[in-house]
Automatic annotation (TrEMBL):
<comment type="similarity">
    <text>Belongs to the enoyl-CoA hydratase/isomerase family.</text>
</comment>
<dbReference type="InterPro" id="IPR029045">
    <property type="entry name" value="ClpP/crotonase-like_dom_sf"/>
</dbReference>
<dbReference type="InterPro" id="IPR014748">
    <property type="entry name" value="Enoyl-CoA_hydra_C"/>
</dbReference>
<dbReference type="InterPro" id="IPR001753">
    <property type="entry name" value="Enoyl-CoA_hydra/iso"/>
</dbReference>
<dbReference type="InterPro" id="IPR051683">
    <property type="entry name" value="Enoyl-CoA_Hydratase/Isomerase"/>
</dbReference>
<protein>
    <submittedName>
        <fullName>Isohexenylglutaconyl-CoA hydratase</fullName>
    </submittedName>
</protein>
<dbReference type="Pfam" id="PF00378">
    <property type="entry name" value="ECH_1"/>
</dbReference>
Amino acid sequence: MSAPETILIETRAGVRHVTLNRPETRNAMSLAMVDELLAALKSAESDGVRAIVLKGAGGHFCSGGDVKDMGAAYAGPGPDGQDPAAKVNAQFGHLCKAYAETGLPVIVVLEGAVMGGGFGLACVADVALARETALFRLPETGLGLVPAQIAPFLVERLGYSEARRLAVTGGKIDALGALRLRLVHGVHEGEDAMNTALESVLTDIRKGAPDAIAQTKRLMRRARLHDAGSLIDDAAKVFAAAVRSEEGAEGLSAFIEKRPAKWVQG
């Protein structure tokens, strides 16, 4: 991918770190940022990294969509006759879906403003870690707007009742409140504590076989929407394929030989 303008990308120890980098707007999500985040994920998937970490620059994660930036796109009908507002909104939906469905583990580091679309990104992550400064909010209805693309992910993460309450009231949640709702999986005070927690999570992820993690995530997504009985045969096929795979052979050998598997060493 070409050099991005709204995000920073760094790879350390096999992990792709992506930083939303518009601190002057509290990392409000512009159209360019949406496209660059999609490209960053695609690149991470093709590069074979072990996980992707999302965070924000300047003490904030993301203050939601950049209303000024997107306003220009809403000015009038596009040359293709499509409603530009719908087109822009759908692109953000594709972003959320891509991060929700990737086989890579996705970890978000949340601090300061976590609003609107940033709230949505927090909901699609596999692991969400919050600083004590994190403040979550859904401001859309107060702006006469709708949290359209993030609604399914809010319901999935928070449950129907809590998602509806927050969306209707535009309610604010602090870090401990987010932990009580299981929106986040840990709250850590100070940068050092957060870095330690993040490294602990990444260490645990590295113990898992990459394809096994991807297949597990894929199966769990299906399990949300299907009766357990309807998945028995397909789940058995997934398990059998894993047993016969290179990862399966290596994992069983490592267990018998009482040594770390090769992917742990990598």
